[in-house]
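[09:14] KT: can someone run the structure on this one? pasting the chain below
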Amino acid sequence: MDAPYQPNGLGFDALGELAQVDWSQLEHCYGKGIVSLGADDDASLAIAGDVSRSLTALRTDPSLAISDGLYSNICHQGTVYEATAYAVPFIAAIAAGDVPDRICVPLLALLGDISIAGSYVAPSGSHAGAFGNHVDGLVMASLAPSIARLSKIRTPKLVALIQAIQSLLIQSTDARREAVETAIDAALTPPATP
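[09:31] RB: done, structure tokens below
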């Protein structure tokens, strides 16, 4: 497969470039392409099994898009897939744009979880890690240029998460995976109220 497409647009503008990827040929948690898991009137089931639709749903229902869509499809219980590598550039491009923290923060946490899972292999797919032929390398190779797009983010706890991911990309160790987990927890912790 070719290297994952890197969108030119930032924020939601990147979604206009989803057609640059042939999502129908990519494996995700539920199979290849669009896999129907239920009726379209159940929003949760309508986006599970469809990576492109999950990304598009970030505009209208970011919480559902991230939890029931992206985590379900491309980082399911800590396992990443071929489609994950192709979704990563879009996730990073959206997070790097002018989007609210309620979207940016969970997207960066998702990238952190993807980096952890992509840093080792899940040979049978029965546990966390990268599942599929060369998926670990593909995911990690996709993360490097994608994470570089996040350089304009200045919020300290998000910068710490980005740096932890970059460190894991350089060398996959248990200590660096733990550092990403800690940074994810810190990024997701709401600020203390006086």
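[09:33] KT: thanks! The longest strand covers residues 27-28.
[09:34] RB: yep, looked fine to me
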